[in-house]
Amino acid sequence: MKKILCLLLTAQLLAAAPAFAWGKKKSDIVVPQNFPKKYTAEYIEQITPEYKEVGKDFVFYVALDMLKGTNGDFSRRAILGNNLSQRPVKISFKDLGTINQDYASFDALGWKKGKNLYIFINPRHQDAPPGALAALLAHEALHQDEYNSLAEETYAWTMEASVWCEILNAYPESGNDNMHPLVRRENTLKKLFEKGNYTNKYIKKTVQSNRGYKNLPATSPGFEDL
C-alpha cells in the first residue's frame, strides 16, 4: 500500500468509545446524543442508501450529509466516487499503529491500494461529534493520489477550517464538547483561520513548520500554487 497522507498530527488525545454501526432497520439505530436533532433514526435510515458504499458506520453517513451546502460538498462528492479512482472512498476507524507504529498518534491516514482509496480514522474519534468528523473528511478527501506537498496540505487544512466554521454556523451543537480531541483540533484550526482573516496565512505557516512535513515538496499535481 502507498501512503498518501501522513499528516494529521496533534497533541496527545483521549481514548474514545466504540464505533456506531448501522442496521438495516431504524429500530437497529441508536442515535448518540451528540448528533444534531435533525438526524433521527428515521432520517439516517433514509440517507443510508446514498452513503452505504463508503463504509458500515452510520456516523460517516451523517458526517457526509452535513457537508451538503458547505465548501466541503466537493469532498463529499469525491468520497462518493467523483475522484481520481472513480470509486467510493472506503472509510473506517482503524488502529493506525497496526499499520506502522509511527502513525499511532495520527488523527487519520489515507491509503491507495491498487485503484482503491481508503480513509482510516483513529479510533479515539469514534465518539466525536459528526460535525467534527465532517470537517476532517473534507480535508482527507482532497488527497486522492500518492503525491503530497506543502501546497496540498495547506489547501486541505484550510478547507477543514473553513468547513468547521460552516458546520458551527449550521449546527452549533457540534462544538459543545470542546474537550473532545477532535473538536479541540478543529477549534485550533478555526482560530488560525480567523487570525488570518479567513485566509491560509497562519495555517500555511503551521504546515510549513510541522516536522512531519519536512520532507514534502513545495507542490504536487493539482496543487502547484503554495
* N→C terminal distance: 28 Å
Task: Provide the succession of SSEs.
Answer: EHHHEEEHHHH
Rg for CA atoms: 16 Å
pLDDT < 50 stretches = 1-24
Number of domains: 1
Care to describe what's here?
The protein has one domain. Helices cover 37% and strands 9% of the residues. It contains 7 helices and 4 strands; from the N terminus they run βαααβββαααα. The protein has a 4-stranded mixed β-sheet, covered by helices on one side. The N terminus is likely disordered.
List the helices and strands and how they pair.
Elements (H helix, E strand, L loop, with lengths): L1 E4 L35 H11 L6 H9 L6 H7 L10 E4 L14 E6 L2 E6 L8 H11 L9 H21 L10 H15 L5 H9 L17
Parallel strand pairs: 2-4
Antiparallel strand pairs: 1-3, 3-4
Helix pairs in contact: 1-2, 2-4, 3-4, 4-5, 5-6, 5-7
Give a quick summary of the entry.
The chain has seven helices and four strands. By secondary structure, the protein is of the alpha+beta class.
